[in-house]
Every structure is written in structure tokens, then in C-alpha cells.
Design goal:
Helix content: 55-70%
Low-confidence stretches: none
Strand content: 5-15%
Order of helices and strands: EEHEHEHEHHHHHHHH
Strand order of the largest sheet: 3-2-1-4-5
Structural class: alpha/beta
Mean pLDDT: 92
Largest sheet: 5 strands, mixed
Distance between the termini: 26 Å
Number of strands: 5
Length: about 270
């Protein structure tokens, strides 16, 4: 069994709860370590916190991948410093913590269980969640941002459509036109919609509706930025073989990027 300096860490908002182990403790010793608390330390998300963690010269940082935004700083910075990153699935971590008789929903217990899990399973890579390379990680991040934008825009569109039913019912057949949304947001002129707004039999558009339309159009602009970044990442040579297969089925670039972000690399 290899001897390594292993930091088990539970990511919280703005900090890591950590413990450093260099050997796998016995089951009895695990309970003592948890109760004594003397081997634990916290580091906040800052240059000082990162510097302290790296000053301990860890070989491995072990985390759960559940809080992606909470761990992104630590995963990126520690990997750049040459620290190996090991990710343990939530189910595996919970089961192992229970076997160690450590309490649930406890930051110190989670950190200790993660460090012990790595020391016990370090020779078997299949016991850990795959760590994506930097390009694929960026692609996955973009895919998640697209999903977030779609989740935000749907209720906005539905709300505005409901309001237009009484505010300007004549445009019901034009709601899908991009020009209409840009006009309502104040980003584009349209003689047609200007006239409809004056002559409408409805109650008229409101400033709130125009403000919501502005948010919607801004989201579409943001979506284009994210999609452009995805297409650029997709040009990386490591995806060439996968994309060749996808092109045979005429998959659009963004669809290719989303699919690749979910599985790459495939053994």
C-alpha cells in the first residue's frame, strides 16, 4: 500500500473542512480522530487559504463532486499545483461513512470518511469518479450554463405570453418572431408593432412586460456567447474521432458538444 499525504475535504460555502492523514487508521482510531477534532482544519476560499493547504504538501485532495461550484476553485488550483484530485461518489461516500460508524450530515465526518476511503481504495481507480480533463470540464460547464439559461427563459416567456393575452391580443400569431421580442424589449424598432400597440383592443403593454422582455433578449445574447465558446472547445483534436461519428448522423455542433460533455472520455 502506498503511503501518501491525503487530505479529505468537505466543501462548504466559501470554505473547506479538512483532515490530513498519511495512513489508514483502524476503525477504533477513526472514532477517536473524529471525537478529538485536533487533526481537523478549515481553509477559506482565498489565496491565503489555498497557500496554507498547499503548504501542507498533500499528495492527494479527496472530495465529493456534488457541489460543483463549491469545489471548482480547489480542484483547479490544487491540480495546477501538482496535487492529485480524487472524487468519491455520494453513494459510495455515504455507505463508507456509515460503515465507519460516523454521523450523517456532519462536515468533519464527511472529510474523515473521504480521506479513509481514498487510503483504502487508492489502488483501484474504478472506485472513484472520473476526473475530466480541463477541456472537457469547460465543455461540461458550458452545457450546464445552457441548461440554466433554458430553465430561466421558459417561465419568462410563459409569463409574457399570459400578459399579452390581455395587453395586446393581436400579436398572438407573432409571439415566436424574434423581432417582436426585441421590439418589446426596446432593442429594435418596428412600424408594424408600433401601430399595433397604438390600435390594440387590449389594455396595452406595461413597463414590467418590457423589462421582462429585455431580460429574455439579454439571455438569448448570453446563450450565443456560451454556444460560441462550446463550438471553439469542440475544435480540440481529442474530440475529432467522436465528432466524425456524430457527423454521420448529422448532429448539429451544439448537440455534439452537449453529448460529448456528458460522456467523454469513453473507455
Amino acid at each position: 500500500m502506498l503511503t501518501q499525504r491525503v487530505i479529505g475535504a468537505d466543501a462548504c460555502n466559501g470554505r473547506l473542512v479538512c483532515i490530513l492523514l498519511d495512513s489508514l487508521p483502524s476503525r477504533e482510531r477513526v472514532g477517536e480522530i473524529y471525537r478529538d477534532k485536533v487533526q481537523y482544519f478549515d481553509v477559506d476560499v482565498s489565496a491565503k487559504g489555498l497557500g496554507y493547504l498547499l503548504s501542507l504538501k498533500p499528495d492527494v485532495l479527496v472530495l465529493e463532486p456534488t457541489g460543483v461550484n463549491y469545489i471548482k476553485f480547489w480542484v483547479t488550483k490544487c491540480a495546477e499545483a501538482g496535487v492529485k484530485i480524487a472524487l468519491v461518489g455520494h453513494k459510495e461516500s455515504s455507505r463508507f461513512r456509515d460503515n465507519l460508524k460516523l454521523p450523517d450530515k456532519d462536515d468533519e465526518a464527511d472529510a474523515l470518511a473521504l480521506a479513509c476511503y481514498y487510503l483504502e481504495h487508492q489502488a483501484d481507480p474504478i472506485q472513484f469518479v472520473r476526473v475530466r480533463d480541463d477541456v472537457t470540464s469547460q465543455l461540461r460547464d458550458c452545457a450546464l450554463r445552457l441548461k440554466h439559461i433554458d430553465r430561466i427563459q421558459s417561465p419568462l416567456i410563459n409569463r409574457i405570453k399570459q400578459d399579452l393575452a390581455w395587453a395586446m391580443p393581436e400579436v398572438s400569431g407573432s409571439i415566436t418572431a424574434v423581432l417582436f421580442w426585441r421590439w418589446l424589449a426596446g432593442y429594435a424598432g418596428s412600424a408594424r408593432y408600433d401601430k399595433l400597440e397604438i390600435d390594440t383592443c387590449g389594455l396595452g403593454t406595461t413597463q414590467n412586460m418590457k423589462a421582462m422582455a429585455k431580460i429574455l433578449v439579454d439571455l438569448w445574447a448570453q446563450k450565443k456567447v456560451v454556444e460560441a465558446e462550446m463550438i471553439q472547445l469542440l475544435q480540440h483534436p481529442q474530440f475529432t474521432a467522436d465528432r466524425a461519428v456524430m457527423k454521420r448522423y448529422f448532429l448539429p455542433d451544439i448537440a455534439q458538444a452537449i453529448i460529448i460533455s456528458q460522456y467523454y472520455p469513453l473507455d
